[in-house]
Specification:
alpha/beta, Nitrilase/N-carbamoyl-D-aminoacid amidohydrolase, eight-stranded mixed beta sheet, 45% helix, globular
Length: 584
């Protein structure tokens, strides 16, 4: 009984340790060691139903992780946070069942190795089991990213957001594929440690373990190639653009905005005007610093002025001819903003296809709008909707659950956009494709890659993390999102209402590669929960090549899942074959 209790305790502890790899703790190095606690538990299960026992232990590890990792969701609903944690922990459980049952390397009796051939065979067996485990983990992360609308946040690879050298490999295997490295190294290390212990007990000579050396070599090669790519990506030919992003830090609870509409609009207009004033102020200062009186200093207006998601408490109505028109108050906002300068105005707001938004037959979209000030208006209608946030399946108990947990009734659900054509904007006198995303769509790589085309492109995201109050949810959102720039090799311009507003390079960094300044909106204490504007430069690769990930998506994770499944099937038939031979 005591042994079982200790196993349960260690399983939960392993998940708690993993939680420290992510915000707000940010001890990213822990991702390399947390599984050293879990794997010995899974590999030492005995008796019948080993897979079921492995599932239970790993599920407990998942709960230890997710309850802490998703505690920011408690700002909206604690019951929902716990329910989601229990569901997501099932993926840990499936990994545990696989590790304890089909691919358990400790089920084989330890044998002394006397020849180089035996040692090589032992190492290959270790590497093979580690590769199957790591690939299966990646496959499970891929499944949870799309099953039942998906929640792909905070896979192990996301911890590399603070290690941009290793993160560069995401352009080949995606951020999900990066999870292979810590699982693979952990599985090899635990097997190596066991062999050291057995050699010590048998009084054998301690020899080099080739499998562990191979695992370290893989990490070194990934690090070396990441270093090369980080340098080469930074030095590619670029189009230089300028952006002005406005963030008001508007508080909200569930879907209830806590400010009056007039205050919201006036605030955005005021901050935008302040940002444009800074442009003229910078030009005046540059003119004073010029040595020649004949030299003319160009006023470099922003190419894009961006407001965040759902920032205007009004609607644009799509007409029969495809044009989008707002009411007099909405159009006056557009007119005022364009009176400040010549740029493209980007913002998030609701779009209606029909006469009125309250008509149950009318489609309402959460859209990203682009207006060039010369009559050209484009829109992207959000495709990946938030369940229990933007839509609820037609089940009465879910509507009751929403009311009980948030204190407000769920209104009309949103419609889903169906177009995956990039938008287009003029930046520096050149046409540039825009990969649009709204809210947490920037954490859904299978969606953003659909917009990739040859040529210069930039990802533009408008978001609102006000639901999560001043929690680490906003930073976790951003850490998951920045990998889209690496996977697709397109920079990201991200404007949030409350959260992380900034510009990410195609290498995944907030640092301007030339001025070395951080391009994110924070206050004096470094907090992202701040009212203000950010004037920054974005560097768009002029060639816009298609990465391996953009072309083939999560091929690596899917391959790992298929390999694991085939191994389970082969093990099942092998086991049955042995039973039949014994009975015969």
């Amino acid at each position: 009984m005591m042994v079982n209790f200790l196993k349960i305790l260690v399983a939960v502890l392993s998940g708690i340790v993993l939680a420290f790899s992510f915000a707000p703790f940010d001890e990213a190095w822990v991702v390399w060691g947390w599984m050293w606690l879990l794997l010995p538990l899974l590999w030492t299960v005995s008796g019948k139903r080993r897979s079921l026992k492995g599932f239970g232990l790993a599920w407990l590890a998942g709960m230890g992780f997710w309850v802490i990792n998703l505690k920011w969701l408690g700002t909206v609903t604690w019951p929902g946070a716990l329910a989601l944690s229990a569901y997501l922990s099932a993926y840990f459980g499936f990994f545990g069942a696989f590790a304890a049952g089909s691919i358990n390397p400790w089920r084989m009796k330890y044998e002394r190795v006397k020849t180089i051939r035996d040692r090589a065979k032992q190492s290959f067996r270790s590497l093979g089991s580690a590769a199957l485990l790591a690939g299966f983990w990646c496959g499970l992360e891929w499944v949870r990213g799309w099953l039942m609308t998906g929640f792909g946040w905070n896979g192990l690879g996301v911890t590399f957001a603070k290690n941009l050298i290793l993160a560069q490999n995401a352009e080949y295997v995606g951020v999900i594929g990066l999870s292979f490295l810590p699982v693979f190294l952990s599985a090899v290390a635990v097997q190596t440690a066991r062999r050291f212990y057995q050699q010590f007990r048998a009084n054998e000579v301690k020899v080099l373990h080739w499998d562990f050396a191979t695992a370290l070599l893989l990490i070194m090669l990934s690090f070396t190639w990441g270093t090369i790519r980080l340098s080469s990506v930074t030095n590619e030919p670029k189009i230089e653009g300028r952006v002005l992003m406005v963030q008001q830090d508007i508080p909200q609870f569930a879907d209830k905005i806590l400010w009056e509409p007039s205050k919201i609009v006036e605030g955005f207009e005021e901050l935008t005007a302040d940002g444009i004033e800074e442009v003229f102020r910078e030009s005046a200062e540059a003119a004073q610093e010029t040595e020649s009186e004949e030299e003319i200093v160009e006023i470099r207006m922003p190419d894009l002025v961006i407001w965040p998601e759902a920032c205007l408490p009004a609607y644009l109505h799509e007409q029969e001819n495809g044009s989008m028109v707002g009411g007099p108050k909405v159009e006056s906002v557009f007119e005022y903003i364009h009176s400040l300068g010549d740029f493209t105005f980007v913002l998030g707001m609701s779009e209606v296809r029909g006469e009125t938004a309250v008509d149950p037959e009318v489609d309402v979209y959460n859209s990203l709008i682009m207006d060039d000030g010369n009559g050209g208006r484009q829109s992207y209608q959000k495709n990946h909707l938030v369940i229990l946030g933007e839509f609820i399946p037609d089940l009465p108990f879910l509507h009751d659950l929403y009311l009980q947990t948030t204190g407000v009734e769920f209104g009309k659900g949103l419609s889903r956009g169906t177009t995956f054509e990039p938008l287009e904007v003029d930046i520096g006198g050149q046409p540039v494709g825009v990969i649009p995303s709204v809210c947490f769509e920037d954490t859904v790589p299978r969606l953003t890659r659909k917009f990739v085309r040859h040529g210069p492109q930039v990802l533009v995201n408008v978001t609102n993390d006000g639901w999560f109050q001043e929690s680490e949810g906003s930073l976790q959102h951003f850490r998951n999102a920045l990998f889209r720039s690496i996977e697709l090799r397109r920079p990201t311009v991200r404007c949030a209402n409350r959260g992380v507003t900034g510009v990410v390079t195609s290498a995944g960094s907030l640092v301007d590669p030339y001025s070395k300044k951080m391009r994110h909106l924070v206050n004096e204490s470094g907090s992202y929960f701040h009212r203000g504007y950010l004037l920054a430069t974005v560097y768009i690769p002029s060639e816009g090549e298609i990465t391996l990930y953009a072309a083939f998506g999560d091929w690596f994770a899917v391959s790992g899942l298929i390999a694991g499944f085939l191994w389970v099937v082969a093990s099942f038939f092998s086991k049955n074959s042995k039973i039949e031979k014994r009975e015969g």
